[in-house]
Amino acid sequence: MNGEVLIGQGAERIPTPAIVVDMAVMEANMERMRSFLDGGSCRLRAHAKTHKTPMIGRLQMEYGSIGLCCATVSEAEALVQGGLDHIFVASEVVTRDKILRLVSLARYAEVMVAVDDGGNVESLSRAASDAGVSLGVLVDVDVGMGRCGVRSVERCVSLAGAVHSASGLVLRGVFGYEGHAVFIPDRAERERVGRAANALLVEAAEGVRSEGLPIEIVTGGGTGTFDIAGTYPGITEIEAGSYIFMDDRYAALDLPFQQALSVVATVISRPTDDTVIFDVGMKGISVERFCPRVQDTEGITVTKLSEAHANAEIKGGGVDPKPGDRFHLVPSHCCTTVNLYPQLAAVRDGVVEAVWPITGRGA
């Protein structure tokens, strides 16, 4: 995809397969999130693992995000090199090479990282002190997902004390992601599980504060629980990411955000009356959860993806795709689909407005 050639041209010029973002829809999603949080005590620290694109991160900051999250040091490097300077690596960084890269970033940006182990605190402290930088730290609390994180308030308090005493480190708060709640389809059950997770995180924060230690940030929340964590007393930040793009897994929930991202594909074969083949496969659209949906089109169902082809079944009248016709496919997971492409096309009113490199791809 050549941005110099495409910018200002109709979106039909975009070679397929390609990621396309409807700018008006994405900006409306950002505005909905900003409007929801306006006037409250909770803020957004948007998760950049969804887009991995510094230009989109800059837009999120313009729409009220107080900083950005990422999942890896490599993603953090892509963001900082793209001019963003308030970054939280929402995962443990434990190997020497990655710790050195992390503290190097702290020379150029405000950087925070999650911890759940005392030995890791010592390693981070030593590297930060040797580099002469200050590294923010949030204690990672397992709030029910069963992934990283300390498993008790007592352990959280102990680890927070170790961070507070360590040179080169600044205790900023606690972090706990309720990923086990974000996709629960029943609203009442999602609220119950989400609030239970939020309660554990706030309890951990209060436990640390009771020991006289400073806790500024209490952060969690994802797209599926943005309005649960975002209104829970004591939660100061949420880390929603997919809300800007959406995908077919989130589309099943009662969320106010609309589909902004799609993969545009071309019909390359109509071998039978009830079969159509697209020029995109699992190397171009994620099948992590289920097959993609053909957007705004009834009667075509994608049934199988191979490496570079999508098989679809035609049922019902009113649709007659022919080789050369273009369709937009909605992935089941936006984040793992974005990671398949080196760039994306930003489209407004059917015209290519920009072509942005996904500089964190593969990071």
Q: Approximately how much helix is present in the residues?
A: 25-40%
CATH topology assignment of the largest domain: TIM Barrel
Distance between the termini: 21 Å
Q: Which structural class do you get from the secondary structure elements?
A: alpha/beta
Number of strands: 18
Radius of gyration, whole Å: 22 Å
Number of domains: 2
| Helical segment count | 10
Shape: elongated
Overall mean pLDDT score? 96
CATH superfamily of the largest domain: Alanine racemase
Oligomeric organization of the protein chains = single chain
- Which sheet architecture does the biggest sheet show? 9 strands, mixed
Uncertain runs:
none
SSE string: HEHEEHEHEHEHEHEHEHEEEEEEEHEE
At the first level of CATH, what is the class of the largest domain? Alpha Beta
Q: What is the CATH-assigned architecture of the largest domain?
A: Alpha-Beta Barrel
In short:
By secondary structure, the protein is α/β, with parallel strands linked by helices.
Key terms:
9-stranded mixed β-sheet; 9-stranded parallel β-sheet; 18 strands
Task: Report on the architecture of this protein.
This protein has two domains: about 25-245, Alanine racemase (TIM Barrel), CATH 3.20.20.10; about 260-355, Lyase, Ornithine Decarboxylase, Chain A, domain 1 (Beta Barrel). It contains ten helices and 18 strands. Strands 1, 11, 12, 13, 14, 15, 16, 17 and 18 form a nine-stranded mixed β-sheet that branches. A nine-stranded parallel β-sheet has the order 2-10-9-8-7-6-5-4-3. The protein has helices at about 5, 25-35, 55-60, 75-80, 95-105, 120-130, 155-165, 185-210, 225-230, 335-340; strands at about 20, 45, 45, 70, 85-90, 110-115, 135-140, 170-175, 215-220, 235-240, 260-270, 275-280, 295, 300-305, 310-315, 325-330, 345-350, 350-355.
